[in-house]
Amino acid sequence: MSIMSSYARALAAQEGRAQPVATVRHVHLSAAPMVFIPLRLAGEAAAPLAAMVGTDPENPRLLVVPQPRNRDLRFAFMAELADVMLPYIEGFAEVVETVEAKTPYERYADAPQILVPSRGGVAFTKLLGRSTRFRRADGPYPVHPTVPVLGQWLTFFADRAEYAGSSALVAMTDALALHFATGQSPMEDANLATQLAWISPPDGQSGAKAALAAEDPLISPPAGPDTHPDFDGQVLEHAIRAYETSGSEAQVREALRSQLTPTWSLMWHAVRLLRGLPEAATVDVRWVRDREQFTRETARLAEGGSPRGRVDSAVRAAIRLADLESVVQTYEAQRAFDDPLVMIEHRVAGKAFTGEVVGVDAARRIVPAGKTRPAPRPLVTIRTSDPVRLSPGRKLFSSRNRKQRTEVVGIDGDLVVLQINDQMGRGASPAPGSLPEVGDVVCYAELDPGGGQRPRLPAGEDTPWTHGGPPTPYTPTDEDAEEAWS
Amino acid sequence: MPISKLGTSPPTDERTRALSIASCHRYWKTAGASGIDRLLLGLLIRSPTVELDALERRIAELRAQVRAAKAAADHATVRLLRAELRKTERAWDDALDPEPEPAQAPSLSVREQVHQALTLLGVPTAGKMIVAVNEAFFAGRVTAGQLTSLRRDEEKSFRTSPYARPYYLCAALTSELLSPARGLLAVSTWPAQIRIIGPLSPRTDFLTSAIRIAEHIARLIHAGEDASLAAYRLLTGMAQNIPGAVDGFDRAEPAQVIAAAGAELTIHRESDMHERGQAAKRAEKQLDQVTRLFGAGLKTARTA
Amino acid sequence: MNRLDTLRGPVAPLDHNARTIAALAVNPGCDRRALLDAAGVDKQKTAAYVGHPAPFGQSPFAITRAASFDALVKANGCAHLLRLLRETLGLSISEAAYADISDVGGNDSHQMRHTRTRALLKRAAAGGDGSCTLFDHPLLKLTVAGHEVYLEPSIIAFQIEGRFHVVEIKSFAVVDDQADAGQVAAAARQSAVYVHALRELFAAEGLDPERVSHDVVLVCPKDFANHPTATLLDVRQQLAALRRQLSRLTRIDRILEELPADFTFDLETQSPDEVGKAVGSVGARFAPECLSSCEMALFCRAEARGDGSTDLLGRTARDALGGLESIPAVLGLADESRPPSPEQLEIAEQLRYVRRLYTEAIA
Amino acid sequence: MIAETPAQAAAAATEAILADFTGGAHRGVIVDSPPGAGKTTLVVTAATTLADSGERLMIVAQTNEQVDDLADKLASKAPALTIGRLHSDGFSVPARVTRHPGVTASNKIEHVEACTVVIATADKWAYVTGRTWTWAIVDEAYQMRSDKLLAIAALFDRALFVGDPGQLDPFSVVDTERWAGLAWDPMQSAVAVIARLNNLPVHRLPVSWRLPASAAPLVSEAFYPFASFRSGTAAADRELRLTTAGFPVPWDRTLNEAAASGWALHELPSRHTIRTDAEAVQACAGLATRLLQRGAVAHDENGSHDVSPDRIAIGCAHNDQVAAIRAAGIPAGVTVDTANRLQGREYDVTIVLHPLSGRRDATAFHLESGRLCVLTSRHRHACIVVARAGIAELLDNHPSTGRVQLNVPVKFPDGWEANHAVLAHLSRHRIEA
Lengths: 486, 304, 363, 433
Description:
The structure holds 4 protein chains of 4 kinds.
Chain A: H1 3-15, E1 19-20, E2 34-40, E3 48-54, E4 61-64, H2 71-90, E5 96-99, E6 105-108, E7 114-116, H3 119-132, H4 146-160, E8 169-171, H5 172-179, E9 180-181, H6 186-189, H7 192-199, H8 207-214, H9 229-246, H10 250-275, H11 283-302, H12 314-338, H13 340-348, E10 352-361, E11 365-366, E12 375-376, E13 379-384, E14 395-398, E15 406-412, E16 415-420, E17 441-445, H14 478-482
Parallel strand pairs in A: 2-7, 7-8
Antiparallel strand pairs in A: 1-9, 2-3, 3-4, 5-6, 10-13, 10-17, 11-12, 13-16, 14-15, 14-17, 15-16
Chain B: H1 14-30, H2 35-45, H3 52-71, H4 75-96, H5 110-121, E1 125-126, H6 127-138, H7 144-147, H8 150-160, E2 169-170, E3 173-174, E4 184-187, E5 196-197, H9 201-222, H10 229-239, H11 254-286, H12 289-294
Parallel strand pairs in B: 3-5
Antiparallel strand pairs in B: 1-4, 2-4
Helix pairs in contact in B: 1-2, 3-4, 5-6, 6-10, 9-10, 9-11
Chain C: H1 3-8, H2 18-23, H3 31-38, H4 43-49, H5 60-89, E1 98-100, H6 110-126, E2 134-136, E3 140-144, E4 147-151, E5 155-160, E6 163-169, H7 181-204, E7 215-221, E8 228-234, H8 236-248, H9 252-257, H10 272-280, H11 297-306, H12 315-320, H13 327-334, H14 345-362
Parallel strand pairs in C: 1-2, 6-7
Antiparallel strand pairs in C: 2-5, 3-4, 5-6, 7-8
Protein name (chain C): Secreted protein
Region (Disordered) (chain A): 446-486
Keywords (chain D): ATP-binding, Helicase, Hydrolase, Nucleotide-binding
């Protein structure tokens, strides 16, 4: 944690209210996001217990497993969940737009967005996907045909959640933490109720006090996936027993509704809070990626794509790692260039600076390394009061033109001299407007919003001996489909 | 959408049930069941489909027998018959009801059902396995909870009137201290060394049980029938823990299980039998008739 | 009477188990916790008494699940376990002998069981006739802060070719060969306590402690089923941490020296207020992580809040703030309402700068 | 039996390595090389051996600086060899490489592929396609991430992987446990992956030619508990002399201690500070300045030389500390860098800002044993550690609650233990400032 966010936390603690750490909203918020609050049975890896799910704050769907140890009831639950989720997800696969490119292609105009309360919700979504995607509608342990389809989608969403800046599956506590510093620790921020208590405490109450009250499981039950042990022992156990003797789900439903409703309200409250922030400039760029991935997955599934294997192969893992790294870098840069409050972190760390242009040598031409002919390499001198900790040769970008490459030539007191390397047109001298002008206030940072070029990796079937040789490609087996779920 | 129809519970159809009852019948024939067993077996075969008047006749019969037993102060038989009576009455209720109930609990007492399972297995066995065998082969409904006080009750009964019953459900004894081995039930009529638990006995007894279960299934197949799904599941689960007894997650084949378990058994048998034999001799010398069956302890014997 | 007994009052000290001993390493910088633990004070009760009950509990479902999985692994003469040991460690088929030490002929006194544990393990180590392979519920002993404590283990000790291993059975799932890293770490710390205690036992019997392996066999349910699977867990690092913490417990004397002679946490004779004051007078080192591991955490957090301590914001925040102890100091230095001491000059300068940028950006 | 001399031990190790590598029984050979153990010499020997028998060879290193160092040394020792220095577009190859007539530098593989030895960074190799080499040497293989090896492994049949296992693990900006436990987890080092997936012989070089007799035992014990090594030189072979006498002030006393014993702990009063602790920063810069002022002369097995600025390095954990020290005024030519960037480099004297100095709590980053190992094993003569008092308490109070992933080999040494070992040793050379 940086000194900036630590300062904001200290301020929040003092003021009794969360403080902003962003001036714009960095996550995409769909017009109709689906809120999904899953619960699981304590002590089990992936035994769903209940879920509250839906797109209408006034009309949540409550799904329960009246006896979570019963495998048939679990799959019935998953089929019911599919009944709610699949129409929502597949509903987006209707309106397409054509993207003008070298080879024009189509993508869906919008995509589904699922909001869960916390990272625990994301992890549990992944487990639910893992435990259902291999299932089959035929064979010895058939499930409803929608169950494996839902499993594939849940896997898709959980995978997307690993990519920085993706808004396909969002943990609400993470989204809030991006925008607000509370007066408690990051660890405690993982509790949606206390985090929101700091962000919008009831009138006349301090955040600290509201957070304390929100820790009471009777007022704010855990947001899942784990339920409160006292609830399990004092309420749920009896309700399940009542189901077993009477066959009526009523008690279990009511018990679980009591646990889920408060979180349901908190989730929509958080959605309204986030909607109150203006959207950051590059949110849409990132959402386009989510839409593209959604388009691809839809096509893959439509072609009968088999479920993703249990683990990534060596090549698959390396490719994914490169993707993950590239989006982290891009996301971090985009966020800073979108939001001066985020940029502060980098300025304080000496990796970025803001200042006024005091000199431009537009006519400068040199022979760049590895080249034979001179090319324009103008110098820009900026006066800054920021503590710049960049050494000559460091590559910088600016919010002015996020694609233009520049490098530090020298730093002398409060003067930084930069060399502009590209984006100046094809002429012998820089194109008009391609350089900052004297008097401009500019911000440069050692942050690259563009993904770098990267080499091709071998195809999976060409995996070299160093990495274990070609793996057997994953094909779903009967065993996978029959995997016990007890 | 009728979600509840999506369930995939294994079919408990009448055919499976009938088979297991038949197989049970035959097993007891071959095992030379005692008179009372035969009598009870007769009850066991009854099902809710028996006509109402037949049931009514049986109820009257039982009531008379209860009265007679009561007069003779044969409390054990009274208990037995009363349980039987309750079951028959329930069967009559069910027969009135147009919706047929799923598998009815057999009419044997818990004690008898346990004896039945133990006789099939032939070695001291933990409650859980007894329940599993009872369910897999005798369509029984014994629950683990019903076994907890069984050994204590048997001991009480034995202390009150020794050897009054044809058999007692008793303890297995640890080879070193001749104390009751935790959680195991045995049959008093077994040879003493069978009821001794040496260090290797948990393993050899497990292997023996697997063989006995496999043999039983083989017998059923030989007779042109087949065992229940539960029986195969039980055997497969056991076979997975015996080297070479089953391939991967396939269903276990009795012959392969018998061969594999037998092979491992050969490795342990000699030292296990030696240990058990020695201990049995000591037990013979050191223990009285009660402790020989229910174990000597440094404290009062624990319950099963 | 021992100083620690005075501290605790006239109740029996709380029993240690692997979990409580492993917890010694969770916040070793906290004198408060060290003292309460060393004196065997019931922290749960004390916290409730002073008005900050710990929010801990275990779901009955989790307890049932753990017990039934444990029973499954051990069922039928440890049939599952033998299979796993044969698969993962190459245990030979002939090694199958099993001894249960949960009681000795029906007597389950600690002394009795410990004596038997020692005898059986010694015999096994000597490799004599009738030596066993699996030892269920061995009762081990460990010296903690000068006290001998029994460890009620939920483990099986097991030997292969003269090496002894600890088998730890846990009911969290291993899905596609991965498990929750927090739970695995907790299991590793607990297993390390058993390995350590087992090694002490070996040393006391004149056997080579290194015959107890640092590779623990962790048995968990595989994927979403109940089928057990085994993974070897190297606990060398946890063992080293444990040894460090056990050797550091002697510092209790130093903490005690600074306390008045009649100092006590006795719930019988002292009012909640007095106990609260007594607990408060022993230095704590609160961190938000305590909330998930220490029964006194809510008390300490309330105290930290009262002091406006930067500890509330988390360990990393406190380090980022140059180690400043109080939130008012942070903000006072930032808005220049508080003059910096010479050693605060640097952090004060940074905070002023941060505040200026922050205020600009918010405006 | 007569004890082997360091030179004999090293020669025997090299011989065994080459026999395994060229013998044909294995597709790969791993060589663990502690700091300054003659890794470069081994690479040069292996390259010339192969070249002598008419074989072509590719060499992979991780940074351009490493590639240039290797190319320079190779060309110096084997002038007859044709060496292709393959580099990326826009990179200018330094004169120390291009001055050799046998070296051809180009950014196109077609221009250099005919050379007996082609050498480039792993990043550059990843763009080479359609060609294969029978032999490869991968240098600094512990620094290389396994996904980088994946990109180039199709280029060669057999490879010698050389590297220092005690240094920093490769790094990723992504914090994911998705692949934890997989043998081919791309976030591991290249060596970790090949060793887990292939049964390859592992050799180690037993002698450090860089570290003096005063340092080798400590570094070996603290950071290489399962692969000990010794110094190639005796205590008498190395001497650091300060030509002017010092004043009785802390900086000079610290320098005296370092010159006399090879180690010094310049200890500032205990205090929690920000990362760029001005006093500590000042001490690092001041010690470097003062060392030059006092005219240090280094005597070693090759003769004597003045300790010039380029033979001094200041190392720290964070970039902002590097910037602060540079800003504090250091003599021109003195290297200041983070541990990551000092890997594989060598100096006469190093000054280290202790990663834990002034902190209240340690993080995994600060405790990483590789970081301290790099910082305390770059010197031929002396290492001066600047730190606030209180690190021992910090270590004692450090909670051990790390996460543990199944099937991930435990990393040794543990950062805590290594830090303690170094601190215990340094306490014998403490000068209070």
